[in-house]
Structure formats: C-alpha cells, structure tokens
Queue: 2 jobs
Job 1
Amino acid sequence: MKSDEIYALLKTKPAIIAGPCSIESNEQIDEIAGELSALGMKFLRGGSFKPRTCPKSFQGLGAEGIVYLKSAANRHNMFTVTETLSPAQLDEHYGSIDVIQVGSRNMASYGFLKHIASRTADDHKPVILKRGFGATLTEFLFAADYVAENGNNNIILCLRGIRTFEQIDSLLRFTPDLASILELKQRTDYPVYFDPSHSTGSSKFVIDIAIGALALGADGLLIETHINPEKSLSDSRQAITPYSLLKLIAYAKNSNIS
Ligand code: PEP
Ligand code: MN
C-alpha cells in the first residue's frame, strides 16, 4: 500500500496504534499482533531501539526485533510503527517500517528531523512525531515543519504528556496535556493523536484519559498493550491488555465520541 493510503487510514477515526512498549521475542509480538488484529487493529507498534532514561534498563532487541515486528505485521495484515534513534538505524530498517515514530526525546534532534525529511521526500512515508515532554506547542509545530520541509506532509502529531511540578508528588508519570488537543486542532491541520500510556504511566488511568482525549477531538490514540502487562520488560505499569482495549473501543463506539 502506498504511503498516502496508509496516511489516510491513520486519519480514519477511531485510529488506534497499539502494541507493546518493546518487542521482547518473536512469540510475544506475534501473539499480541494476532489479538490486536482480531480486534480490527491495523497498526502494530513495538519498540526495538528504546530511548530508555536509564542505560541499564532493557534497551530493546535492536535489529532482530524489527525483523520480528515486520513478520508479525505481515502475518496479521498490519502496518508497523516503530522508532529509530539515528539516521543510520532508520536507513538500515527503512523497508520494514511503515510509519516512522520520532520519540519525545528526539523531537528537537533537528539533524535527525532533517534526515527524515530528505529520506521521505520521495515516498512521503508517514511520520508520527511525539511532543518533547519539555517542548512548547510552537516548538512542537516547528519540529513538524522540519519533517515537512521537503514536501512530506504525512505527519501525525502525538501528545504524550509533559513534565510539570505535578510530578514531584503525584502518581502520574507526566501531566496529560489534554487541553493541547484543542489548541493544536486550531493551529494546524495535522491529525492529533494522544498517548494515554506514557502521559499517565499507569494502566489505571489509561482508559479514562483515552476517552477524555477522544471526547476532546483527538484523531487517534497510541496505546501500549501487552498480553501479560506485569511481565512486560519495559513500562509494565502502564500497559493494558487487549481485553481492556476492546472495552475502550466499545465505549468509544457506543458513545459516539470517536
Ligand atoms: C514510545 O512510544 O515508545 C515512547 C518511548 O514514548 P515517548 O517517546 O513519548 O517517551
Ligand atoms: Mn513505553
């Protein structure tokens, strides 16, 4: 499928990108892909080059994980969404990535954004750009301009929580920047996604924040899902099961908020 058609699917509400924080094994990604595709999901996320805050944390399976992700997606008729951390990694795995994820920590890596702009200039492969957790909305929109500079406007803006004083003593990992959905919808035509997983850091809050984001007009969601969240090798506290995701989809459909 061509990039423009994939982008059109990403703009079709309710668009949901789901999958584990990290690809952990061939079996793990294949099993979750099977469950998600049975729920009608088209976009399979999974990290293999993980931008972990602590260098001792699980860093992902690297090149091997991308192979597992791509083959699981192929088997279950899905598209891959994954992050790379450098121009060289992107180039090496370009053919296996359907949607290029730029993580929060790389939103302001202008050299990398310029590379993505030139690499995608011909095929316009969709790019999901996550907001830097310390970035203003203007800085976020400038980062999108870097990607668009050679004509690739197939960009999704993804809010994922920001750092505020609240994190000094709250249960939340970041402050969900829900009001920014409204402002971005006024300031740009790019689809606006919300990530209820990283913005809350807690599976207890994921569904409610996701519903809130849809109610505020978010075009899509990026949600971490795991067959067995407690066993997840990264971000285990915020992962939800495919069963919980099913409940969210049912709620969104019944209440007409998507
Ligand atoms: C992710 O979605 O895999 C991720 C690492 O999120 P963020 O870049 O928003 O921290
Ligand atoms: Mn994660």
Job 2
Amino acid sequence: MGRAETGPAERGPARPQPLIGTNVKMTLTPSEATAYLATLRDLTADVEDRTLFVMPPFPAIQAAATALAGSHIAWGAQDVHPDDRGAHTGDVSAPMLADLGCTYVLVGHFERRRDHGETDELVARKARAVQRWGMIPVVWLGEMARGRSGEASFPEVAAQLRALDGVDLERSVLAYEPGWAIGAGSRPASPGWTREMVARIRTILAERCPDPDRVPVITGGSIDLQTAPALFRQPGVNGLFVGRNALDPVAFSRIIRAVSPTGGSPDRPARTP
Ligand code: PGA
C-alpha cells in the first residue's frame, strides 16, 4: 500500500483514495523519527481507507523505511535534485530516494521557493526526475503572498501548474497550500477560499489530462484538528497535507481520524497511548 489508490468502480469514475500526509520539515533526527513513526504506526494500524504518508528529512528516511516496512504508511522525501547523478555537493537524487523505498517526493514547496529561489522550471525538472524513478511527485502549488481575492491570486498558481511540462499529472499529487497560510503564526485558508482555488486548479487539469479526476489535489497550511474536516470536505479536495500540527503523532492520528472518506461521522479515536 502507499500508492494513490482508486475507489470502487461502481461509484463512477475512478477517484483517488483520500490521501493524508505530513512534511515534518527540518525536525526529527533519525532517532526521533524512529520513535515518532513507531507511535504513529501503532495509532493508525486500523486505518485502511485513507492513504497515509510521512516525509522525514533526508537523514531519517532510512529510519522511516525500517519503521514503516509492511505498514499502511508510505514514506517520502521533502526535495530532490533534478539530475540523477553528478557533481552536486550536498544534493540528493531521485534514484537514491527510490532505493530507500520512497513512494512520494515533495517538489517546489513554498519554503524551497522562499529560501532557495526555486523556479517553476526547476520544479518541473524535479517532478520529471521523480517520475523517471517510478515515484510520485507531490507538487506544491500556491500563491506566495495573499492577494485581494482568489481571482487575483490564481494567475500565480495557474503559471505553476502550466509549467509542469512533461510531467504526467495523472501520476502526480498536487498540494495546494497558500504560502500565507503556512507556518507558525499563520492561519489556514477558509473552506471557501480553498474551494474556489481548487475548482480553478481542476479547470486547468481538465484541459491538460484525459482523466483529471484521477489527480489527487490535497490541501494544507496550518491545518489542525478543528479545521481539517471542513477543508477536507470541499469539492475537488482529496486529502490533507499537515505540517507542525502533525509533529505530535497522537495529534496527527486524531486529524487522520477526523476526516471520513465516506463523508459520514468521523472515526472515534481508537485509543490514546
Ligand atoms: P504548516 O505546514 O501546517 O506548519 O503550516 C504546512 C506545509 O508546509 O505543508
């Protein structure tokens, strides 16, 4: 498990299974990741109708591979170099990540763009590298600063999406997270804002791929237990991408359980360790 899976055929066009993941950013040493993942694995062992993933920092990916082998939780990386090999000191390539069993690789996250000046063109090269090695790029999309309205903000997001030349969108995950909603001191986008932006993203997807409903669009930015269910319920949203509020595995497992794939009552927490 761990790949984006599809729902029952009788419910109409294949829809991706809800996808709930976390990018833990520059937190968790390998030892801390081992402890975190053991707890998360235990707390979510019965969650089979949601695809779960965790993106630890590079040095902790091997620990994730060990801690999560045979579980329902996939693991991935937070970045990748676009080339497969070469003189790029400090960088990590897609074949290295594939060798570590990564399913997902995040490309072009807000913080990579903000801190490292990553461009749309570079992000597309990274996404292609990820796909060359059989993994799924999680492509960050979002406006860097808050605009007056969704209409005013969307051209930036549209340009990011249209720049994904040569990327198979049906083998990608799109993570729409407004930059202004990310990080400590920020607040999540409203359900209405998210709905509007995701609808616009899906309009472009419909122009660019034969089966746009197969492309999971997940959303995030300061999501917590209170805000997760309403964001998850927005049309066109297939899942959630959680940051700092997933750093406690108990809190993350509660968020995971608070979103019901069927739209019915959320799961009750199974237990507290
Ligand atoms: P945050 O991070 O939840 O801490 O805002 C979200 C993200 O960067 O994906």
